[in-house]
Design a protein that fits this description.
The chain is of the alpha+beta class and 506 residues long. The chain is 38% helix and 23% strand. The chain has 3 domains: 279 residues, LigB-like (Protocatechuate 4,5-dioxygenase, Chain B, 3-Layer(aba) Sandwich), CATH 3.40.830; 97 residues, 2-Layer Sandwich (Glycoprotein, Type 4 Pilin); 70 residues, Hypothetical protein ph0010, domain 2 (Dna Ligase, domain 1, 2-Layer Sandwich). Strands 2, 3, 4, 7, 8, 9, 10, 11 and 12 form a 9-stranded mixed β-sheet that branches. Strands 14-13-15-20 form a 4-stranded antiparallel β-sheet, with helices on one face. Strands 16-19-17-18 form a 4-stranded antiparallel β-sheet, covered by helices on one side.
Amino acid sequence: MISLKKTVLLSVVFLLLLSGAACCAGHVQVSSADSVFYPKDKAGLECIIEGFIRDACLPDMPSEIVAVIVPHAGYAYSGKVASYAFKALMGGGFNTVVVLGVSHGHYFKGISVLDKDAYVTPLGRCEIDKVFSQRLIGFNDGIYNLEGPFYGENSIETQIPFIQYALPGAKIAVVLIGDSSYETCVLLRDALCKATGTRKDVVFIISTDMSHFFTDTQAREIDSSVISSIKVFDPQVLYRFLFSMKNAERPCGSSAIVSGMLAARALGADSVNILQYATSGQVSGDYNSVVGYMSAVITRPRDGVNRESQDQGEEGYAMKRLLNLSQRKRLLQIARCAITNYLDGKNDKAPLNNEDNVLVENMGAFVTLHKAGRLRGCIGNITGRGPLCDTVAEAAIQSAIGDPRFGPVTADELDDIDIEISVISPLKRIDDPDKIVMGKHGVLVSDGFRTGVYLPQVAIETSWDRDRFMRSLCSQKAGIAPDAWKTGACELYVFTAEVFGEKEHD
């Protein structure tokens, strides 16, 4: 018979062990996706991943991979597509893998970074890079540790076993985006770049599925337009395109795509290569309601130089710099203040902060007004005619009262008006119309005194291809022959635009 003393002692030991186990459990994230999204047993999980990766046939990868885009559905449906990206990472010398996902079940403002010691899956323990994670958390108050959203989050959990298999020994940092604002995407870009620094052994895993629950034919058409926009590799343009789509059409990880592309571009990446695309119908046999899946790699030249940015800078048609959040908000404030004062009968402009040298640079700009999602006015100057802040103020007023397509904006409707600003790069003359990239380039055509211009976002808002875009520009805007852009009967100029609006900064 066990004595009371021994019983008490054993109980204390048991409680201590239980407490220790609970403490350890509190410092790891245990996967809940096994048996739902992938096999629960280690051997079965390894076998399925090994088979997927073995069968993936890749093109040559002459450039350094900075990020990959991968799906996150059940392995039976999306694992084969995901394996292409992970196979491309094998042997790449990556020591820190940053998983970027968008929270499916929880809404929260900003970004949450998992602050634990490890992630545990059927393949074992995957260590979390505590230093990298803390650098992200310490970057800004908008980045913090909120544990709840990580539990059961398949956009994260489906990536970990692939990382463990393809990059054994690599540590991870786990990031969830809680809201879809462009401001949050920029914040994550800045934090990722700061935490990465000059390291070349860091790679971003951008987790997203494509369209949801359309027919196979519809899904492929929708996803094709998204993939085309991704390949343009202009994250700002991509953001505007994605968030003009209906929810079911839009990739569920859209904010992760934009954030990861912004960071990759800032770190020298210059191209996106699509590795594989498929739909769930190819597995289930149900082509009436499918989900689309894509894998891709985002790369930079091996010498670390972004050729596209370098060439554009020398040729003079890319933006010299990106406006920071404060400068964007200031220009939007100037535009609204200018319209409000004009309608109130005042001539005052918003007071200018003379310490900001960017806002007094000579740059062109357009101001576009929307009401209930419909165009309400758009006027501006392609080339700079003075300080940017003055150009924006004048364009805002003219968009409100001087666009001949619309009646003047009234004070009563001003609260319902959304303001959008496009800051224009220098024009570049081109001879080959094939160099025009839809969604990336705005175009000006000129034939003597006849000119016409479309901003880059026109192609996105209309879904026009290049032929329709250019024919409309020539005939409707410039009043010249619709095919003048093809025949050489007019001069062609391209430009880029940094586009931002009040909706993005609410």
